[in-house]
Amino acid sequence: MKKPSVALVLGDPAGIGPELVAKVLSQPALRELANVIIIADRQELEKGMTIAGQRFDYDEITDTADIRFTSGKPLLLNHDWSSRTPFDYGNASEQSGVYILETLARAVELTQQGITQGVCFAPLNKQAMHMGGLQHRDELHWFAELLKWDSFCCEVNVVDDLWAGRATSHIPFRDIVKNLSVEGVVDTIALMDRTLRQAGIAKPKIAVQALNPHGGENGLFGDEEQTIIKPAMAKAKYQGIDVYGPYPADTTYKAVETQHLDAVVSMYHDQFATALKMLGFERGITVQGGLPIPIATANHGTAYNLYGQNLATPSAFENAFRLLVRMAASAI
Description:
This protein has helices spanning 17-25, 28-31, 42-52, 94-112, 126-131, 139-146, 182-198, 224-238, 252-259, 269-280, 315-329; strands at residues 5-9, 35-40, 59-61, 75-78, 119-121, 154-159, 162-166, 205-209, 242-247, 263-266, 285-289, 295-298. By secondary structure, the chain is an alpha/beta fold.
């Protein structure tokens, strides 16, 4: 595997992000996987290392023209916050939201410029981001705007070797059915196929979930399986994608397990995500699926209540970093 360059962001500095970055980059074996450019306020990075009780050496730069990886150390591109309003540690705030948006935007910019091949960010908080000026319902669609990307995209969750995407995401439950379409389900299946191939899975096997109880019982409990989901699966198969189902939500995981399937496409946010988080909450990853550059993070939040206590478990963020490196390497 070629050694990629990765832009790494602390996420929300008022949460566990800086601590997680310190715990991951203090491991030599992880640091050696990629050339890392940390985009962060130096004081917040240092604070994260103090909280974690773990340190790593880095070289500080102030401009991308100074990027050199000759020392083998991570580089810190300092996003100085010292002259601005302090963060409200342990709480969502406008300051944190602005900082998150600014550092993530810089990370995306570096990857657009080809300086890095992907972005890995520590946990952030949507409330803080909205307080800081985010106009989109989530970071995925904001990333798409930054990248001027108008093709289909959706969040992809990963635990161990099991991947999951969804045809609808951050919308009210009452709006799910009216936002389902044959084209939307096909797009989700195709996106999952591409994303898994990018991660090195040569021929992904994808399960598709039904929407209604018992898979609709041939229309007795709803007809979306006949009118939307099965036609979408037929189109995906015609495109050469290996799809199975549709499986009722309460038996999907059993089908995945017995048939050794790689991924699940669900119809709404919590349909399979609940099972996935029960399977491995502290190992889960979120990939911003469908975008033209790889972007990944841990599949959990900022844990404001744990700030400063050195209680954050780094396994999910470590997994996100490893997967992001794999995906970034494929982009070289």
